[in-house]
Amino acid sequence: MEVLLSFLVGGLFAVGVYLMLRPHLIQFLIGFLVVGNAANLLIFTAGRLGSQFPPLVPPGGELLEPIANPLPQALILTAIVIGFGLAAFGIVLFFRAQQELGTLNGEAMPEQFETAPLPSLVDEPQTPQERVPA
Amino acid sequence: MIGAVLIAFLGALLAPWVERNLKQANWVLALLPLGLTIYFASLLPAVLEGAPLRHSVDWVPTLGVRLSFYLDGLSLLFALLICGIGTFIVIYSGGYLKGHPDLGRFYLIILLFMASMLGLVLADHFVTLFVMWELTSLTSYLLIGFNHREFRSRRAALQALLVTAGGGLALLAGLILLSGMAGTPYLSELPALQQHPLYLSALVLVLLGAFTKSAQFPFHFWLPNAMEAPTPVSAYLHSATMVKAGVYLLARLQPSLGSSEVWSSVLMAFGLVTLLTGATLTFRHTDLKRLLAYSTVAALGALVFAIGLVPLTSYYGAVGFATFLLAHSLYKGGLFMAAGAVDHEAGTRDIHQLSGLFRVMPITGVAVGLAALSLAGLPPVLGFIGKEVLYMASLQAAPAWMVGLAVLGFAVGATLATLLVVPFFRGQPPEGVHEGSPSLWLGPLVLAGLGLLVGLFPGLYNPLADAVASAVKGKAVEYHLKLWPGFNLALLLSLLTVLLGLGLYFLYPRLWAWMATDPLPGPENAYNALLRGLMRLAVGLARLLQNGSLRAYLVWTFAGLVGLVGLALLPKGLAWPQGAAPLKPALGLLVGLMLLGALAALRLRSHLGMVVVVGIVGAGVALLFLLQNAPDLAITQFLVETLTAILIALVLLQIPRLGRVPPGRPLDKLVALAFGGLITLLMLHMLGQPIAPHLSRFFAEKSLPEGFGQNIVNVILVDFRGLDTFGEIAVVGLAGLGVYALLRRRKEEH
């Protein structure tokens, strides 16, 4: 069981990473969601499978064995919710990018910042613009 | 003693306030160094009786670091110089920088420097020493760059900082090594370490620190460049105090590191080369401050040469060091301040343009004359005595050719002294130039006067000189300082020095015309090339790694992970999970479906298709949770997947179809496959390790009795790890705020 899931998680990571590397941001988003799900599965599998009962305490207080590992479940619950927050923010961000820039192709987006040459630490500035204004 | 250092630091912090509220702030502020001078002078009798003082308090007790101070003859001489000259420097600054808008800041930094320097020469614990050492580098950086709107000031400040702080790093390593070798962090307790196997390593590191700080060849270039600083700074830091920190350290460590062949030969060689470098480069300049700076380089070389001679000579080396150190500090501090005063009044520092100054600036003229006598090494001033003893030391222990070179180096001092004095007496005085305010001539006059006083009555300095020499030598030294030692070989050498110096003076115009034409290649070129290369490397790295392409970042990240984690995993070999759960057919089907769905995403162009793919993977994970006894996860996952799908669908409807997408690149496929494969291998490896169940067990057992909940996962979230959940709520809340802000801005624009 765990071996099968290892291959599933690996496969999902491969697909997700490949999609994240594609130029279009929608593909990036889909890849990102796939990777998120795969990561949750990884943590889940790390807690081991093969339980018979969910992590609940029966009214008597006596634990039923074998019980599912509650710790990874708690961690994943947090991860799912945070992942959703991030995904929602990403979706809206890309939506706005489409409206502002007219494209979601990451490679076609216009350069928004230009790289100014670094000031030299040893050579005197040639042009007055490079001087610090008094 | 600790109180004195603390008062110096606190007083410095008050300086800007004093400057703002008092008219003659310099005279008031000078009371601080003056008071400290008097305090240290009051300690003279105790120290001269041969009982060094030690004070210490806990600083970082957990690391065994103590703020520990030690006062013997050597420290006391430096403390007196720092506070005494500091007094006149503060007074002088008020006159020199009168009306400067940043004068308050200037007082603050220069007094902070004074406090750090004081801490440095009094430090006993090596951590204290190092911290103070770096503080002097930092304050020096701020002072050289005081005119920070000028590029040249900034460049000179950075150069001084990089050279001295770079050496400081070597010094830190050296000090750590030394304290490890000696088994004590206290400098005053260091034993003789010449026989230790690590001796050479520690020596090289310490020398790097000392040579950079004291501007020894090949690190001498930063000192003349530091003349971009306002003159009070040059007079204080770059002649009398900071540049002597390296010399101080060498003198302090002489008893434990000296007495070896390496020590003497290295110090004598570098000292002599520095002396000659400073002397030679003097002929390239006509600017008063630059001339004095190169003469300082030469003097520092002479001092290092003298320390190298200490173990080889009976006592001449140590006494020569003690005497020449005081003589140089007095005449050089005075000459610098006088040069600044001339610049301030006459508007130039070029010796070719100055003339007849004595008639209009008689007091400064007297000071310059006395100081120049000391610089030239003529009687009856202290410089003469210092040079005589140094000559005696060289004659006793150095080979003849070294003595010859030393004479040549000192001869240039005589030449420079002549060059400095001539503008005062030759030619017509310039129009409208007159003597500056008392604050400008008081310092030069007193310092030069002291040189004359001690020269005439060397007995005044004799006890302290003996104490300094004893500290440097490592055993008690008694020597009778005399102005007139009688006819001997050293006197003959002095005569030769003066004659040679005068000869060089007459050759000076020709030497200058010959040497000042081209920029000389030197170690500074290496420094420049290093910095340019560093910047090019930074730009290249930024272009490579921060090129603005998301894809490039991801490829670097994923490929890097594969490389690094793979490298760590490789030697462990493959592991196969032990005692894995049996395969369920329903789960097998689900896994196949999810993989198929994911693979379909690679080919799809339509947005709706993509929503479906996300749904398949998400719902598959949820079903898997359900089948594996994780009902909470399954419910949450279904909820979130539904919401995500709705969100994507809403947004995607507004975005045109993908259209033509370029085919996937082989590199991308390779990276993705490698990363997926790595994850699978990692998981298999992890599953092969035993699991530690105690935390899960703890949560399961304590859930009902202590958390009062039957759902263990819920109790973990809201109780055992409640703070985590609180943070999670904050993250989701912030994401919601971000979404709101992004959408609202759109509305406002329309």
Brief write-up:
The complex is a heterodimer of chains A (134) and B (750). Chain A is mainly alpha-helical. In chain A, 55% of the residues lie in helices and 0% in strands.
Structural summary, described in words:
- The complex is a heterodimer of chains A (134) and B (750).
- Chain A is mainly alpha-helical.
- Helices cover 55% and strands 0% of the residues of chain A.
- Chain A starts with a helix and ends in a 33-residue tail after the last helix.
- Among the domains of chain B are: 266-513, no CATH class; 692-750, no CATH class.
- Chain B has helices spanning 2-21, 25-29, 31-42, 44-48, 73-96, 103-122, 126-144, 151-182, 199-213, 222-225, 231-240, 244-257, 261-281, 288-309, 316-346, 357-360, 362-376, 382-397, 400-425, 438-456, 462-473, 489-515, 523-545, 550-569, 585-601, 607-627, 631-652, 666-687, 694-707, 712-720, 722-749; strands at residues 53-60, 65-71.
- Chain B is elongated, with a radius of gyration of 37 Å.
- The two termini of chain B are 71 Å apart.
- In chain B, 47% of the residues are buried.
- The chains are: A mainly alpha (134), B mainly alpha (750).
- Chains A and B meet through α1, α2 and α3 of A and α8, α23, α24, α25 and α26 of B.
